[in-house]
Amino acid sequence: MNEREEVRTKIREPEALETNYDHTVRNMEIRNKKRAEGRVVIKGKNRPWELTRQGKLRNFVSGRTEDDLAAPGWVIFQHEIRKHSGMHRHQGGNHIFVLSGKGYTLVDGARHDWEAGDLVLLPILPGGVAHQHFNLDSNLPSVWMNVVYGPLKDPLANWHEQIELSPEWAEKKGIQERKVASLVNKARATGQERFARGKTLFDALLDLRDARRSEIKTARCVVRGKSLPLEVNAMGLFRWYIHPLMKDVVCRMQIIYVQEIPPGSRSGKQLHQGGRVHYVLEGKGHTVIDDVRHDWEREDVILLPPKPYGVVHQHFNADSEKPARLLVVEPNWVDILGADMGSGFEMIEAAPDYRA
């Protein structure tokens, strides 16, 4: 046997196989690295408008664009309404911030008026909610913004059913009849719950269900921006639209507030898990995230990346004469994961306005 044949006959050591545990850990590391290195600022001026069946939309974040983002999972878009939108039904849970104009929204036939600075809420109801938006100004369009964390809707098997096409879409396509589906709620209420209720923990769940149904009947679908007080806290100047302690709104799956930063000033400095969204309503400045500066201006979206040990961040207003205003949205994890979450929730430095 020559040397070459001898080498071929040697038994190879089996290669180490990756276990499921190794695979899981490696995927976590890849995911966290992508988020830490992802895009933090999305430039609003670069986002095009698109005419759709529901109306004229401008997407900032959608399923098509989130691969390289610091905080994936969000759906963020604006809707321009000249006359009225299309009508569709879906599983609610939307939080619509009115950027300009005035109008009203029909939610299952009930009218809810709004104007710039208001927050319109769609309740989560069995069978979804049919809704349509109307502009009341014949000279100027209304514009609103929707910011929703998509994974919160996954357990609802969220879906969309178009009932009526937007006028602009129908005109573009040469469609005369805009009605495309019947206005039918397909909720699966059985009406067979006729047994006596006791005091078990299961009965308590039914009691909670009934209490929430009763709350929704009288809860607010519109939070009036003009009615909100200015709160001075360690993070800065806030106007709260939805807070975990607010029980009188039809939907509270997110935490929403507008933060104002005075001319030439800054917010507090905070440690937070990340996964928070900011939309620049007014002004220009920058946000420092883990010692890295990210510049922004009006109409930009700022994403805080979720990191295992959280992110330290602080906002700065670059204008010495005008305030900056940020619309801030994050999932309401407080009652599920706790305010600390996995990183801790800590104030490192108070805003100058709070110290004063």
- H and E string: HHEEEEEEEEEEEEHHEEEEEEEEEEEHEH
Helix content: 10-25%
Could you tell me the CATH topology label of the largest domain.
Jelly Rolls
Estimate the strand proportion: 35-45%
| Number of beta strands | 24
Domain count, please report it. 2
Uncertain runs? none
Distance between the amino and carboxyl termini: 90 Å
Order of the strands making up the biggest sheet:
1-21-18-23-16-15-14
Shape: globular
* Class per helix and strand makeup: alpha+beta
Q: CATH homologous superfamily of the largest domain, by name?
A: Jelly Rolls
CATH architecture label of the largest domain: Sandwich
Radius of gyration: 25 Å
The DSSP helix count reads 6
Biggest sheet: strands, sense, closure? Answer: 7 strands, antiparallel
Task: Specify the CATH class of the largest domain.
Answer: Mainly Beta
Task: Return the average pLDDT rounded to an integer.
Answer: 93
List the main descriptive attributes of the protein structure presented here.
6 helices; 7-stranded antiparallel beta sheet; 356 residues; alpha+beta; single chain; globular; Jelly Rolls; 36% strand
